[in-house]
């Protein structure tokens, strides 16, 4: 199990605390420092069953600067979104937990963290 976090994020700290309280075996990835490659983002999206725009923090300054709100959300634009996430990791929603069963979850609630633990 791996969790992608930004240590400055309260939801990330909460998720890590819950994993610790449950005695989970996991690895922390500080994704702002250890930026995921486009291939890693594609893999996580596949595990999540989501599209890149589903995990994009559109209110971030980088998103506004890029004009992401106006980008199409379609198959033809998918790579553009992935490239933006890899180039601007602050745009990646957090935390993301990759579960043991090969799935993943955006773990913004305690319920989502527990869901990942149960997989």
* Stretches with pLDDT under 50, minimum 5 residues: none
In spatial order, strands of the major sheet run: 2-1-3-4
CATH-level-2 architecture = 3-Layer(aba) Sandwich
- The tally of structural domains comes to 1
CATH superfamily: Glutaredoxin
How many strands? Answer: 4
| Quaternary structure state of the chains depicted | single chain
Strand content: 5-15%
- CATH T-level topology: Glutaredoxin
Structural class: alpha+beta
H-E order: EHEHHHEEH
Give the C-level CATH assignment: Alpha Beta
The biggest sheet, with number of strands, parallel, antiparallel or mixed sense and barrel status, is: 4 strands, mixed
> What gyration radius follows from the Cα positions, in whole Å?
14 Å
